[in-house]
Amino acid sequence: MLSIHDRRWSKNKAELINEVAKGTGSRKEAQATADSIFDAVGWMVFPVSENKNSFPTEKSNRIVLFLDLRDSTEILINFEQGIYQKTEERSESEFTYEKFISDVHKTSYRELYLGHENTYAEIYGDGVMGVFPEDNTKYILENLYQLTRKMWIYNDSRGVGVSRPRIDIGCGITVGTVSFAYYALDERHHAVGHCIHEAARIEGVSGLYDARILVSDRFLDFAEGFLNSDPRFSSRFIDRVLLKGFREPLTLFELLLDNDPRFDIKKNSVPLYSEAYSKYCEKKWEEAKEIFYQIYHEYGLRLGAVMAKRCEILAGRSLTPDWNGTWELKDK
User: Fold this and answer.
1) I need a labelling partner for 273 at 20 to 30 A (CA). Which of 25, 50, 58, 144 fits?
2) pTM above 0.85, yes or no
3) 85: Cβ contacts below 8 Å, ≥ 6 apart
């Protein structure tokens, strides 16, 4: 049976229905499956065969976004163990992990406009990647705002945590050159470029920094004008790092949205964090550690505890005189 993860989707809903019916023997079930897939992303996203000339062959600057459902393994196990209780309106068999993750992808695609003809998108298990034209910065910010707003509305709704999972997402965004390589194996184009891996790595460490949307300094340069002109958005400096497998360091920032309950808390912590980070770069470990722990205790931000523990680690190391605070990340 075809699923939302199947890359052989048809350009035509009738063809898709016929394909699904072969596997299920049920025309009715095939119709429902096709409706669900087309509602979620539309036929443009994963066609059976592509026009090999429809993708640019030259490298071009693109914005790359990775969005991932956090704690997805725990959610899957909870489904398997029947943790989420059935309700009067819905039987246990009607709400499965497959249905849940399909709904998550459906919402992501819809709110981020990943089915747009100028946008490349691909699903990776419980996450999704979007590759956008570089002039889409304003739209990406707005669409992320709407997506996270819907997440908070869902999490505040009745039954979440009891009959339905609570949702949290992590997001990594960067900018760089992308090309598209055609793979005969699956008859599809795939995005190729240094920044594809970079966006995935950034998303992967967002949880470490207690950040929902983590971006590179290159994306912040693109977005700064919009951020400064719209009070719903802000940003804060996070760290200078060398991502796992990379050779050049980059600077990480958190993109802040005012629909997040901790928006003001994080903004208000910026001056104290800047002071602590300056002490950290000056190798004044005890002073930096004390301020980082102050951030953790007074603002409730785990980033403070992470940086304080790093000070303890670095205090026992011999660093070069030109060290500028860059930390080499060991995990993806």
Assistant:
1) 144
2) no
3) 162, 163
